[in-house]
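Limitations
The structure tokens in this dataset are predictions for the assembled complex, not deposited experimental models. Users should treat interface geometry with appropriate caution, especially where small molecules or nucleic acid strands are included. An illustrative entry is reproduced here so readers can see what is and is not provided.
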Amino acid sequence: MTTAKKIKEPFGDRLFLLGIYIFLTLLMLAVLYPLLYIISSSLSSPRAVVSGQVWLLPVEFSLKAYKSIFHSSQLMYGYYNTIIYTVFGTLINLVFTVLLAYPLSVKSFYGRNFVMILMMITMFFSGGLIPTYLLVKDLDMLDTRWAMWLPGAFSVFQVIVARTFFQSSIPSELSEAAQIDGCRDTRYLVSIVLPLSKPILAVLTLMYAVGHWNAYFDALIYLRSEKLFPLQYVLRNLLILNASDPEMLANTAQKIREQGFEQALKYALIVVASVPVLIMYPFVQKHFVKGVMIGSLKG
Amino acid sequence: MNHAQVNALEKTELHDLPFKSKLTTWKKITRHWELYFLVFLPVLYLIIFKYVPMIGVQIAFKDFNVVQGIWGSQWVGLKHFETFFTSPNFWLVIKNTLGISFYSLLAGFPIPILLALALNEVRTGKFKKSVQMVTYAPHFISTVVMVSIVMLMLTPHVGVIDRLFSFLGWEMTNFMGVPEFFKSIYVWSGVWQEMGYASIIYIAALASVDPSLYEAARVDGASRWKKIIYIDLPSLLPITVIMLILSLGSVMGVGFEKIYLMQNPLNLSSSEVISTYVYKVGLVGANFSFSSAVGLFNSVINLILLLTVNFVAKKISETSLW
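Predicted assembly:
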């Protein structure tokens, strides 16, 4: 919009716009404040946190909380496991998604509708928690890393996103030219489609990776051994099971002082667990936005 | 050429022409045989991991025991469903599930639309980008961390919200332990986390509005408000209907992850929903058949709701999922 237009805007419109700016600024502050509060608390001394002195900025700057959580082997194991689940899990997701999405994007693929319906049904109806659990149990995958990878090998939604991309962004002339040159489907997929699909592969990788990083449900259901627990499950034990402990809910000052340090640790734990996602977030934000937009196209 | 022939010709792709579109099924299959090879693994996966559990859901009508397995256990008909319908928990979990769903819908559905409309009015780059950057960010916080943040902020004496309340002269409360607060804490923390991300889809829809509409409105002297009412809102209608169908279709499917983490013995009377009930009775209590029956009941209601809402939307607005 040019400045000339802005000058011409009537008073009412400018007032309206001012209102919108105020609304959006307030909204932004409302989202930012809790995040700042958590970070500031994690950098404050436990005493300041527990006595309720932290409102916005760190009080009595201290890295004590961070130092002590890195001594926790439970947490380090969780970190290690989550990295393994995320890397291999995302790889499995990508392979399955492409293997399914590409054939579904080929219009002359006989049986395409059948596979599509087979897939869509699972989006609206599922066997449910218990039958799936029993299946994983029968496959002897309980308490193994496979239980973290296979039951969610791909998401139907992401397959549709990828299929829409293949259909709309790869010119069909390429396929015809390749066929005339005697290029078969697999080779065409590997040497032509995939190199042209880097944007969508980036979107899928990010969506799946964040999903793995943040997941705790599968661990809750399928895992029993402590050495297999992912980060989020460890966090749940440290942050939440502890927090809803009735003893901690009692309002006596004595107890609060004793548990002060524990309380202060939680802020640091939250920061440490979210750092990888938050660091990469500003760089990859546009990919996520793109993913949502492709997903919203009706294919 | 009659109409049907023209249609057939249009549907035929270039490389089909030498066959005059009279390919035999066999030829259609062999032409893309490698695609079957590619799709084999995912289809096998779907059958094993999605369809086998659908067959396994028969244990809802049986008395499952581990020794006899899914197929060997005794049929008992609708016994488990009757037990569920007559149990005192039935109305509690239904009431909580629907209550949380509709509350979420009422608060969580319009706010992203408002955010998108407001952002659409702002044309300057940096401010708009910062608002988007900040409001999308909480979406990437994990459920565990999100619930921890909520709990920490609400902790009696220590949490910032509780201190603010006592500063204003209200009594300090253990918020997480009061059933009446549970739904509001759940819903508004959800709005905080998801409003930005949920607005993306509406922002995209607004970005694709034909600019000549705005030009014409400007020439006619329409105010910003009028442009929103007569251009933006009608442009958002189709996507809004789709999103509403999806939301209404899943009112019985309140997510397990966040609610389960927020539950404690004190707030259970208002936080127990179908999915958490299925988990507790089924996996924790090892009552597989009863829990499957509850889960199946939930799935079926969900499916019926989705189909009904989709059908109604098709009749009224000519927008639907399929």
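Some entries come with short summary sentences. For this one: Chain B touches chain A through 103 residues (CB under 8 Å).
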